[in-house]
Write a structure and sequence with these properties.
homodimer, alpha+beta, 137 residues, 5 helices
Amino acid sequence: MSKQSRRSFLAKSTALAVAATLPFKNTEAMSKSNSPLVHHVFFWLKNPGSKADQQKLIEGVKTLAKIESIRALHVGIPADTEKRPVVDSSYDVSELIFFDDLAGQSAYQEHPIHKKFAAEYSYLWEKVIVYDSMTVK
Amino acid sequence: MSKQSRRSFLAKSTALAVAATLPFKNTEAMSKSNSPLVHHVFFWLKNPGSKADQQKLIEGVKTLAKIESIRALHVGIPADTEKRPVVDSSYDVSELIFFDDLAGQSAYQEHPIHKKFAAEYSYLWEKVIVYDSMTVK
């Protein structure tokens, strides 16, 4: 086994060991720094005061987790940080996804689970802003 | 050693093993799913066409990595994803940080390294938007 293969083998087997011992999913724990494409979506609800609609949308975003090219998914709501003029806390739900590359993001956009999500949940939101960033080393 | 301690010991020692074998920093690889507070900042340069200013700001954002409460830091630029009306790719640099909690984010805001960053690099940007999200389980 070459030094390179051995390193790769060690990394993979250790990653599996971590997945087995740490109290969170492999996709969440392991892959982010290998997944430089950051896809962050902010949703503004049609009924911004509605906790029920917010909860429904959170559930909807969570259905996306089954899409194979997603390396990590964080569903969020505005955090209770200090109110400053530069902080936009007017959105209702955020969806932060890490992909390995542009192809992973495209596959996600075209995936039946993503299309089902849009078809079933888009009635909830009034506005969406998406930021796609490529991590620089 | 109790089952709980043993699991914790295994997790910690395996995490160290991963940090030693994988080609990225421990903070990047291991801690995100334990760090639910997502702080995402988008910067628009005064000279949006300037690659030099973009590079300078990227270097500036990277200085933040030494702040103790930061669990992961991704510095990014707009990704070359499909141009869609909902995608805002007009910013020049993005800064994505994970914290454990609100206290970690406050400590970051008040940290001398953060204040030095603002003092030394803010002349580069015209506009900033910050989104703080708390991950929901």
